[in-house]
Amino acid sequence: MSALKNDLLLRALRGETTERVPVWMMRQAGRYLPDYIKLREKYSFFERCMNPELATEITVMPVHQVGVDAAIIFSDILVVPQAMGMEVQLIEKIGPVLPDPVKGADDLKKLRVPDVKDTLNYVFEALALTKKTLDGAVPLIGFAGAPWTLLCYMVQGKGSKTFDSAKAFCYQQPEVAHQLLQMITDTTIAYLKEQVKAGADCIQLFDSWGGLLSPQDFETLSLQYMRQIVAALKDVCPVTVFAKGAWFALEEMAATGANCLGVDWCIQPARARQFAGNNVTLQGNFDPAKLLAPIPEIKKAVREMLNGFGKHRYIANLGHGILPNVPVDHAKAFIETVKEF
Questions:
Q1: Which leading EC class covers this enzyme (predicted)?
Q2: Catalytic pick from 14, 20, 35, 40?
Protein backbone atom coordinates (compact mmCIF):
# COMPACT_ATOMS: atom_id res chain seq x y z
CA MET A 1 0.00 0.00 0.00
CA SER A 2 1.47 3.37 -1.02
CA ALA A 3 2.13 6.01 1.64
CA LEU A 4 -0.30 8.94 1.40
CA LYS A 5 1.11 11.81 -0.62
CA ASN A 6 -1.67 14.16 0.55
CA ASP A 7 -2.82 13.50 4.12
CA LEU A 8 -4.29 16.98 4.82
CA LEU A 9 -7.77 15.59 5.45
CA LEU A 10 -6.61 12.99 7.96
CA ARG A 11 -4.46 15.51 9.80
CA ALA A 12 -7.38 17.95 10.03
CA LEU A 13 -9.61 15.13 11.32
CA ARG A 14 -7.05 14.38 14.03
CA GLY A 15 -6.89 18.06 15.00
CA GLU A 16 -3.30 18.51 13.77
CA THR A 17 -2.07 21.72 12.17
CA THR A 18 -2.24 21.76 8.37
CA GLU A 19 -0.42 24.10 5.98
CA ARG A 20 -3.75 24.79 4.26
CA VAL A 21 -7.41 23.88 4.65
CA PRO A 22 -8.30 20.49 3.08
CA VAL A 23 -11.30 20.44 0.73
CA TRP A 24 -13.68 17.91 -0.84
CA MET A 25 -17.37 17.95 -1.82
CA MET A 26 -20.22 15.70 -0.83
CA ARG A 27 -21.56 13.82 -3.88
CA GLN A 28 -18.42 14.88 -5.75
CA ALA A 29 -18.29 11.55 -7.63
CA GLY A 30 -21.07 11.78 -10.16
CA ARG A 31 -24.04 13.84 -11.33
CA TYR A 32 -22.28 17.03 -12.49
CA LEU A 33 -19.29 15.36 -14.22
CA PRO A 34 -19.64 14.80 -18.01
CA ASP A 35 -17.69 11.50 -17.83
CA TYR A 36 -20.06 10.23 -15.15
CA ILE A 37 -23.11 11.20 -17.23
CA LYS A 38 -21.75 9.01 -20.07
CA LEU A 39 -21.58 6.02 -17.70
CA ARG A 40 -25.06 6.81 -16.37
CA GLU A 41 -26.43 6.52 -19.90
CA LYS A 42 -24.86 3.07 -20.24
CA TYR A 43 -25.42 1.45 -16.82
CA SER A 44 -28.21 1.53 -14.22
CA PHE A 45 -27.49 3.06 -10.80
CA PHE A 46 -27.00 -0.25 -8.99
CA GLU A 47 -24.89 -1.59 -11.87
CA ARG A 48 -22.58 1.37 -11.27
CA CYS A 49 -22.55 0.68 -7.52
CA MET A 50 -22.17 -3.09 -7.70
CA ASN A 51 -19.42 -3.23 -10.33
CA PRO A 52 -16.14 -2.55 -8.46
CA GLU A 53 -14.37 -1.35 -11.64
CA LEU A 54 -17.11 1.18 -12.43
CA ALA A 55 -17.39 2.32 -8.80
CA THR A 56 -13.61 2.84 -8.72
CA GLU A 57 -13.58 4.78 -11.97
CA ILE A 58 -16.34 7.10 -10.68
CA THR A 59 -14.74 7.52 -7.24
CA VAL A 60 -11.39 8.58 -8.69
CA MET A 61 -12.84 10.98 -11.32
CA PRO A 62 -13.12 14.13 -9.14
CA VAL A 63 -9.61 13.65 -7.71
CA HIS A 64 -8.13 14.06 -11.19
CA GLN A 65 -10.75 16.33 -12.74
CA VAL A 66 -11.53 18.79 -9.93
CA GLY A 67 -8.52 18.42 -7.60
CA VAL A 68 -10.18 17.46 -4.31
CA ASP A 69 -8.13 16.39 -1.27
CA ALA A 70 -10.06 13.14 -0.70
CA ALA A 71 -12.01 10.49 -2.58
CA ILE A 72 -15.35 9.20 -1.26
CA ILE A 73 -16.36 5.73 -2.41
CA PHE A 74 -19.13 5.76 -5.02
CA SER A 75 -22.05 3.92 -3.43
CA ASP A 76 -25.39 4.73 -1.80
CA ILE A 77 -26.78 4.74 1.74
CA LEU A 78 -29.63 2.44 0.60
CA VAL A 79 -27.34 -0.54 0.01
CA VAL A 80 -27.85 -1.26 3.74
CA PRO A 81 -31.67 -1.74 3.59
CA GLN A 82 -31.05 -3.79 0.44
CA ALA A 83 -28.57 -6.01 2.30
CA MET A 84 -31.11 -6.37 5.13
CA GLY A 85 -33.62 -7.89 2.70
CA MET A 86 -35.59 -4.95 1.27
CA GLU A 87 -36.11 -4.28 -2.40
CA VAL A 88 -34.66 -0.89 -3.35
CA GLN A 89 -35.08 0.72 -6.76
CA LEU A 90 -33.29 3.91 -7.77
CA ILE A 91 -35.17 5.59 -10.58
CA GLU A 92 -33.41 8.39 -12.48
CA LYS A 93 -35.06 11.79 -11.88
CA ILE A 94 -37.49 10.23 -9.33
CA GLY A 95 -35.12 8.90 -6.68
CA PRO A 96 -35.35 5.91 -4.35
CA VAL A 97 -38.41 3.66 -4.27
CA LEU A 98 -38.83 0.82 -1.74
CA PRO A 99 -41.98 -0.93 -3.01
CA ASP A 100 -42.60 -3.02 0.13
CA PRO A 101 -42.05 -0.62 3.07
CA VAL A 102 -42.07 -1.56 6.77
CA LYS A 103 -45.55 -1.07 8.23
CA GLY A 104 -45.40 -3.07 11.45
CA ALA A 105 -43.80 -5.85 13.52
CA ASP A 106 -44.59 -8.56 10.91
CA ASP A 107 -42.47 -6.77 8.32
CA LEU A 108 -39.42 -6.95 10.59
CA LYS A 109 -39.58 -10.75 10.28
CA LYS A 110 -38.73 -10.33 6.57
CA LEU A 111 -35.57 -8.36 7.49
CA ARG A 112 -32.30 -9.55 8.96
CA VAL A 113 -29.00 -8.29 10.30
CA PRO A 114 -26.98 -9.72 7.41
CA ASP A 115 -23.47 -11.05 7.11
CA VAL A 116 -22.11 -7.92 5.44
CA LYS A 117 -19.09 -9.78 4.04
CA ASP A 118 -21.55 -11.71 1.93
CA THR A 119 -24.27 -9.14 1.09
CA LEU A 120 -22.07 -6.03 0.69
CA ASN A 121 -18.88 -7.59 -0.59
CA TYR A 122 -19.04 -5.53 -3.81
CA VAL A 123 -18.55 -2.33 -1.73
CA PHE A 124 -15.46 -3.78 -0.07
CA GLU A 125 -14.07 -4.90 -3.44
CA ALA A 126 -14.65 -1.38 -4.79
CA LEU A 127 -12.86 0.14 -1.78
CA ALA A 128 -9.87 -2.20 -2.17
CA LEU A 129 -9.62 -1.50 -5.91
CA THR A 130 -10.03 2.27 -5.42
CA LYS A 131 -7.33 2.28 -2.74
CA LYS A 132 -4.97 0.53 -5.14
CA THR A 133 -5.91 2.84 -8.04
CA LEU A 134 -5.46 6.02 -5.97
CA ASP A 135 -1.93 4.81 -5.16
CA GLY A 136 -1.69 7.10 -2.13
CA ALA A 137 -2.77 10.26 -3.98
CA VAL A 138 -5.44 11.20 -1.38
CA PRO A 139 -7.30 9.52 1.51
CA LEU A 140 -10.36 7.38 0.78
CA ILE A 141 -13.59 8.05 2.68
CA GLY A 142 -16.12 5.30 3.41
CA PHE A 143 -19.67 6.10 4.49
CA ALA A 144 -23.09 4.92 5.60
CA GLY A 145 -26.48 6.42 6.26
CA ALA A 146 -27.45 7.03 9.87
CA PRO A 147 -30.13 4.67 11.26
CA TRP A 148 -32.85 7.36 11.49
CA THR A 149 -32.33 8.40 7.85
CA LEU A 150 -32.47 4.77 6.68
CA LEU A 151 -35.63 4.14 8.73
CA CYS A 152 -37.21 7.13 6.96
CA TYR A 153 -36.81 5.44 3.56
CA MET A 154 -37.61 1.94 4.83
CA VAL A 155 -40.95 3.09 6.31
CA GLN A 156 -41.94 5.89 3.90
CA GLY A 157 -41.04 3.74 0.88
CA LYS A 158 -39.75 6.75 -1.07
CA GLY A 159 -38.17 10.16 -0.69
CA SER A 160 -40.14 12.89 1.08
CA LYS A 161 -39.67 16.47 2.30
CA THR A 162 -41.32 15.70 5.66
CA PHE A 163 -41.22 11.88 6.14
CA ASP A 164 -44.48 12.18 8.07
CA SER A 165 -45.32 8.46 7.63
CA ALA A 166 -41.94 7.51 9.09
CA LYS A 167 -42.43 9.87 12.03
CA ALA A 168 -45.99 8.61 12.62
CA PHE A 169 -44.65 5.02 12.62
CA CYS A 170 -42.15 5.94 15.37
CA TYR A 171 -44.85 7.65 17.48
CA GLN A 172 -47.49 4.94 16.97
CA GLN A 173 -45.25 1.84 17.16
CA PRO A 174 -42.22 2.94 19.20
CA GLU A 175 -41.13 -0.59 20.14
CA VAL A 176 -41.08 -1.73 16.51
CA ALA A 177 -39.32 1.48 15.48
CA HIS A 178 -36.55 1.00 18.06
CA GLN A 179 -36.17 -2.64 17.09
CA LEU A 180 -35.70 -1.58 13.45
CA LEU A 181 -33.28 1.22 14.41
CA GLN A 182 -31.19 -1.28 16.40
CA MET A 183 -31.10 -3.74 13.48
CA ILE A 184 -29.91 -0.95 11.17
CA THR A 185 -27.32 0.14 13.77
CA ASP A 186 -25.90 -3.38 14.16
CA THR A 187 -25.69 -3.81 10.37
CA THR A 188 -24.05 -0.38 9.95
CA ILE A 189 -21.37 -1.02 12.58
CA ALA A 190 -20.37 -4.29 10.89
CA TYR A 191 -20.53 -2.63 7.45
CA LEU A 192 -18.31 0.33 8.41
CA LYS A 193 -15.74 -1.87 10.18
CA GLU A 194 -15.41 -3.92 6.99
CA GLN A 195 -15.08 -0.72 4.92
CA VAL A 196 -12.08 0.26 7.03
CA LYS A 197 -10.55 -3.23 6.63
CA ALA A 198 -11.06 -2.92 2.85
CA GLY A 199 -9.20 0.40 2.63
CA ALA A 200 -11.30 3.33 3.90
CA ASP A 201 -9.04 5.79 5.77
CA CYS A 202 -11.97 7.44 7.58
CA ILE A 203 -15.76 7.24 7.52
CA GLN A 204 -18.69 9.62 7.41
CA LEU A 205 -22.16 8.97 8.81
CA PHE A 206 -24.91 10.80 6.89
CA ASP A 207 -28.03 11.71 8.82
CA SER A 208 -29.73 13.53 5.96
CA TRP A 209 -33.08 13.81 7.75
CA GLY A 210 -31.93 14.48 11.34
CA GLY A 211 -33.12 18.08 11.03
CA LEU A 212 -36.74 16.93 10.67
CA LEU A 213 -36.79 15.93 14.35
CA SER A 214 -37.28 18.01 17.47
CA PRO A 215 -34.21 18.09 19.77
CA GLN A 216 -35.86 15.53 22.08
CA ASP A 217 -36.82 13.19 19.21
CA PHE A 218 -33.38 13.64 17.64
CA GLU A 219 -31.84 12.22 20.82
CA THR A 220 -34.32 9.32 21.00
CA LEU A 221 -34.60 8.34 17.34
CA SER A 222 -31.23 9.36 15.90
CA LEU A 223 -28.42 10.37 18.21
CA GLN A 224 -28.54 7.42 20.61
CA TYR A 225 -27.97 5.09 17.63
CA MET A 226 -25.29 7.25 16.01
CA ARG A 227 -23.56 7.30 19.40
CA GLN A 228 -23.29 3.47 19.27
CA ILE A 229 -21.78 3.64 15.77
CA VAL A 230 -19.24 6.33 16.71
CA ALA A 231 -18.27 4.39 19.86
CA ALA A 232 -17.66 1.25 17.79
CA LEU A 233 -15.59 3.04 15.12
CA LYS A 234 -13.74 5.94 16.72
CA ASP A 235 -10.78 3.81 17.84
CA VAL A 236 -10.62 2.16 14.41
CA CYS A 237 -10.50 5.31 12.23
CA PRO A 238 -11.51 9.00 12.25
CA VAL A 239 -15.31 9.47 12.16
CA THR A 240 -17.35 12.38 10.79
CA VAL A 241 -21.02 12.82 11.72
CA PHE A 242 -23.14 14.94 9.38
CA ALA A 243 -26.73 15.55 10.49
CA LYS A 244 -28.27 18.02 8.07
CA GLY A 245 -30.43 20.64 9.78
CA ALA A 246 -29.58 19.39 13.28
CA TRP A 247 -27.29 22.30 14.24
CA PHE A 248 -29.19 22.44 17.57
CA ALA A 249 -27.43 19.19 18.57
CA LEU A 250 -23.85 20.13 17.66
CA GLU A 251 -22.80 20.08 21.32
CA GLU A 252 -24.35 16.63 21.88
CA MET A 253 -22.86 15.29 18.63
CA ALA A 254 -19.41 16.58 19.63
CA ALA A 255 -19.79 14.66 22.91
CA THR A 256 -20.09 11.35 20.99
CA GLY A 257 -16.33 11.39 20.46
CA ALA A 258 -16.61 11.90 16.70
CA ASN A 259 -13.53 13.56 15.19
CA CYS A 260 -15.53 15.86 12.95
CA LEU A 261 -19.01 17.33 12.55
CA GLY A 262 -20.46 18.32 9.19
CA VAL A 263 -22.51 21.53 9.19
CA ASP A 264 -24.95 22.86 6.61
CA TRP A 265 -25.28 26.46 5.41
CA CYS A 266 -28.08 27.39 7.86
CA ILE A 267 -25.68 28.23 10.69
CA GLN A 268 -22.85 30.78 10.84
CA PRO A 269 -19.32 29.37 11.32
CA ALA A 270 -18.80 31.21 14.63
CA ARG A 271 -22.09 29.89 16.02
CA ALA A 272 -21.27 26.33 14.90
CA ARG A 273 -17.89 26.54 16.65
CA GLN A 274 -19.50 27.96 19.78
CA PHE A 275 -21.97 25.02 19.94
CA ALA A 276 -19.47 22.30 18.98
CA GLY A 277 -16.56 23.50 21.13
CA ASN A 278 -12.86 23.49 20.24
CA ASN A 279 -12.11 19.76 20.49
CA VAL A 280 -13.78 18.69 17.25
CA THR A 281 -13.09 19.46 13.57
CA LEU A 282 -15.87 21.20 11.61
CA GLN A 283 -16.65 20.48 7.97
CA GLY A 284 -18.81 22.52 5.60
CA ASN A 285 -20.79 24.61 4.93
CA PHE A 286 -21.07 26.22 1.46
CA ASP A 287 -24.60 26.27 0.03
CA PRO A 288 -24.43 23.93 -3.02
CA ALA A 289 -26.86 26.21 -4.92
CA LYS A 290 -24.34 29.05 -4.58
CA LEU A 291 -22.06 27.13 -6.99
CA LEU A 292 -24.51 28.29 -9.68
CA ALA A 293 -23.51 31.94 -9.04
CA PRO A 294 -20.93 33.66 -11.31
CA ILE A 295 -17.39 32.45 -10.55
CA PRO A 296 -16.17 35.77 -9.00
CA GLU A 297 -19.10 35.60 -6.56
CA ILE A 298 -18.34 31.96 -5.72
CA LYS A 299 -14.72 32.89 -4.92
CA LYS A 300 -15.78 35.81 -2.73
CA ALA A 301 -18.31 33.68 -0.80
CA VAL A 302 -15.76 30.85 -0.34
CA ARG A 303 -13.23 33.31 1.12
CA GLU A 304 -15.90 34.62 3.51
CA MET A 305 -16.64 31.05 4.62
CA LEU A 306 -12.94 30.31 5.15
CA ASN A 307 -12.45 33.49 7.17
CA GLY A 308 -15.47 32.50 9.26
CA PHE A 309 -14.19 29.02 10.13
CA GLY A 310 -10.45 29.78 10.30
CA LYS A 311 -7.68 27.38 9.35
CA HIS A 312 -7.50 25.11 12.40
CA ARG A 313 -9.70 22.02 12.85
CA TYR A 314 -11.58 22.79 9.67
CA ILE A 315 -12.35 20.97 6.39
CA ALA A 316 -13.93 22.98 3.57
CA ASN A 317 -16.93 21.30 1.98
CA LEU A 318 -20.46 21.98 0.81
CA GLY A 319 -23.34 22.03 3.29
CA HIS A 320 -24.92 19.12 1.36
CA GLY A 321 -24.34 17.24 -1.91
CA ILE A 322 -23.29 19.02 -5.11
CA LEU A 323 -26.22 19.68 -7.47
CA PRO A 324 -26.32 17.91 -10.86
CA ASN A 325 -26.52 21.18 -12.83
CA VAL A 326 -23.35 22.77 -11.39
CA PRO A 327 -20.82 23.52 -14.18
CA VAL A 328 -17.51 21.71 -13.63
CA ASP A 329 -15.53 24.99 -13.81
CA HIS A 330 -17.66 26.36 -10.95
CA ALA A 331 -16.84 23.30 -8.83
CA LYS A 332 -13.16 23.79 -9.71
CA ALA A 333 -13.38 27.47 -8.70
CA PHE A 334 -14.67 26.39 -5.27
CA ILE A 335 -11.79 23.90 -4.80
CA GLU A 336 -9.10 26.26 -6.13
CA THR A 337 -10.23 29.19 -3.94
CA VAL A 338 -9.85 26.99 -0.85
CA LYS A 339 -6.41 25.80 -1.97
CA GLU A 340 -5.23 29.39 -2.57
CA PHE A 341 -6.49 30.63 0.81
A1: lyase
A2: 40
Of the candidates 280, 295, 204, the one whose C-alpha atom is nearest the C-alpha of residue 249 is 280
Q: Are 24 and 240 in contact (CB under 8 A)?
A: no
Alpha helices (H) along the chain: 8-13, 34-42, 45-50, 52-65, 79-83, 105-108, 116-119, 121-134, 147-156, 164-172, 174-198, 215-217, 224-233, 250-254, 269-276, 295-309, 328-340
The pTM of the full predicted model, rounded to 2 decimals, is 0.98
Residue 3: CB atoms within 10 A of its CB come to: 6
Out of 20, 43, 76, 122, which one is annotated catalytic?
Answer: 76
Closest to 152 (Cα-Cα) out of 163, 136, 141, 143: 163
Whether residue 28 is annotated as binding a ligand: the answer is yes
Strand partners, 250: none
301-310 pLDDT, tens digit each: 999 999 999 9
d(CA 266, CA 258): 21
3-state SS assignment for residue 256: coil
Over its C-alpha atoms, the chain yields an Rg (Å, rounded) of 19
Q: Are 185 and 229 in contact (CB under 8 A)?
A: yes
Cα 168 from chain centre: 26
27 catalytic residue (yes or no)? yes
Sheet of 202-207: strand order equals: 71-72, 140-145, 202-207, 239-243, 260-262, 281-286, 314-318
Does residue 46 have a known ligand-binding role? yes
Residue 153 annotated as lining a ligand binding site: yes
- 29 labeled part of a ligand binding site: yes
Nearest CA-CA partner of 267 in 290, 254, 283, 281: 283
What tens digit of pLDDT does each residue of 241-296 get?
999 999 999 999 999 999 999 999 999 999 999 999 999 999 999 999 999 999 99
Contacts of 334 (CB under 8 A, 6+ apart): 23, 25, 286, 291, 298, 302, 318
Residues 6 or more apart from 257 whose CB is under 8 A from it? 230, 231, 234, 239
